[in-house]
């Protein structure tokens, strides 16, 4: 869903399951980045997690190190993250986009509603990502551009 949502605000996909970028290859671990998105000459190494649990701290640190190695700005698109993770990513020059709900495919609304009702978990089955969600990333990106330019 984020593959479709991010281009609506100008973040264009340029890689999937990425271990190399710009002629540089990540060889320290077997990890890869889910996506690379580009906008305004800035490339983002994106990790997308639609799980109820948090990304493991070690994996978060590896993905940030990968981004630095490959010349990418870290971008974590996650259902939820502890404040310490958000702060770490921000200190490393990146952004954490939190979307709150575990997303099920469009058309699975009845199932998502049942999971939410019975297990009291934040689930949804939207047709698309809300504009406000991707606008948070766009606003942060534009703010960083302005800061870098002046």
Question: Keyphrases for this structure?
Answer:
5-stranded mixed β-sheet; 9 strands; two-stranded antiparallel sheet; 38% helix; single chain; alpha/beta
Describe what you observe in this structure.
- This protein is of the alpha/beta class and 150 residues long.
- It has one domain (2-12, 34-149).
- It has 5 helices and 9 strands.
- It has helices spanning 2-5, 57-70, 83-91, 109-119, 131-149; strands at 12-18, 20-21, 24-25, 33-39, 42-49, 73-78, 95-98, 102-103, 123-124.
- The protein has a 5-stranded mixed beta sheet with strand order 1-4-5-6-7, with helices on both faces.
- The longest helix is centred in the C-terminal third of the chain and has 19 residues, at 131-149.
- It is globular.
- It starts with a helix and ends with a helix.
- The model has no long low-confidence stretch (mean pLDDT 89).
Task: Label the overall shape.
Answer: globular
Distance between the termini: 34 Å
Computed Rg: 16 Å
User: Major beta sheet, specifics?
Assistant: 5 strands, mixed
Write down the overall mean pLDDT. Answer: 89
Arrangement of strands in the largest sheet: 1-4-5-6-7
How many structural domains? Answer: 1
Order of helices and strands: HEEEEEHEHEEHEH
**Number of helical segments with 4 or more residues:** 5
Poorly predicted spans: none
Tally of DSSP β-strands? 9
Class of secondary structure makeup: alpha/beta
């Amino acid at each position: 869903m984020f593959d479709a949502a991010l281009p609506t605000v100008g973040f264009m996909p340029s890689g999937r399951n990425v271990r190399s970028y710009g002629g540089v290859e990540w060889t320290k671990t077997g990890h890869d980045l889910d996506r690379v998105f580009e906008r305004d000459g800035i490339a983002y190494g994106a990790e997308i997690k639609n799980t109820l649990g948090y990304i493991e701290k070690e994996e978060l640190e590896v993905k940030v190190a990968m981004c630095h190695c490959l010349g990418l700005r870290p971008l974590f698109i996650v259902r939820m993250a502890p404040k310490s993770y958000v702060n770490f990513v921000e200190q490393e020059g990146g952004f954490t986009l939190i979307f709150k709900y575990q997303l099920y495919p469009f058309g699975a609304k009845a199932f998502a509603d049942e999971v939410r009702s019975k297990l009291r978990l934040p689930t949804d089955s939207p047709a698309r990502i809300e504009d406000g969600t991707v606008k948070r990333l766009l606003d942060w990106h534009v703010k960083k551009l302005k800061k870098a330019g002046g």
